[in-house]
Amino acid sequence: MIIKGLSRIGVFFLYLLSLLPFWFLYLLSDVLYFVIYYLTGYRKKVVRENLRNSFPEKTDAERRAIERKFYSYLCDLMLETIKMLTISKKQVLKRMALQSAQTDIEINKIIATGRPIIGAVGHYGNWELAALRFSFYTDVERVIVYKPLRNETYEKLFKHMRQRFGATLVAMKDILRKLIELRGKQTFTMLVSDQTPIQESVQYFTEFLNQPTAVFMGVEKLAKSTNAVVVFCDVRCVKRGYYTFSFALLEDEPKNAEPHAITNKHVAYLENMIKLAPQYWLWSHRRWKFKPKAI
Length: 295
Description:
By secondary structure, the protein is of the alpha/beta class. The protein is 48% helix and 18% strand. It has one domain (2-294). The protein contains eleven helices and nine strands. Strand 3 (141-146), helix 8 and strand 4 (168-171) form a beta-alpha-beta unit. Helix 1 packs parallel to helix 8, helix 2 crosses helix 4 (60-83) and helix 3 crosses helix 4. The longest helix has 24 residues, at 60-83. The chain is globular and about 50 Å long. 33% of the residues are buried.
């Protein structure tokens, strides 16, 4: 009961924060960066180990520069995510703009075929804002796959945030059943592809950022089960608070694809994005908890 009461106070506080203008939130972000980076050192050991293993060719100074940029962006991301609770459609469209008109034409051609589409996205840039922008991208049934939170109060809050512009939120464990239910409708399903699978379900390791990595197979399994076209949601940060997005075609014949081919494609696509601007990936995530010999 006490935890529930504290959670409700927390939700009220988050709503108040979300009403603040972006410029003020970025002032708070600058203060938060100083606290997190210099005072608390939040997950600094994890971040440094991840950067060192991912970029052994870089100098300590170069990795430290990426580290500082990452923490600065992480603070922006936290406050931008809170802003998603009350952001307007106009602001979403303004701050997450379409990257390429040609790519839009190509994806709309796929949509016009009536086939289902699976979209992979990484923990890169503001993926939460990209999910809101996805709600306005097409009129077909939009499904977002997510991992439910343990705290019931915050689960309701973030579920509301992600669904407020019309997308349907479905837990990962329920997604195949949901897509079967929607088989009579065309669906465009988005899911995060770089999350760490639970140890019991690890089936495949591939090379990612210079090290063997346990890979989430959900994108490939869903694509093969539903014969869906697979695309990658490419999110880029243009400047503070402003992004572009596009969808890149990865596979249009999933049932004919070799085992792990689809997985390797979305892993490679994300890796290339990270190498171009590494500060926008979630380096504080314990991505390499499992090694091949431990499975």
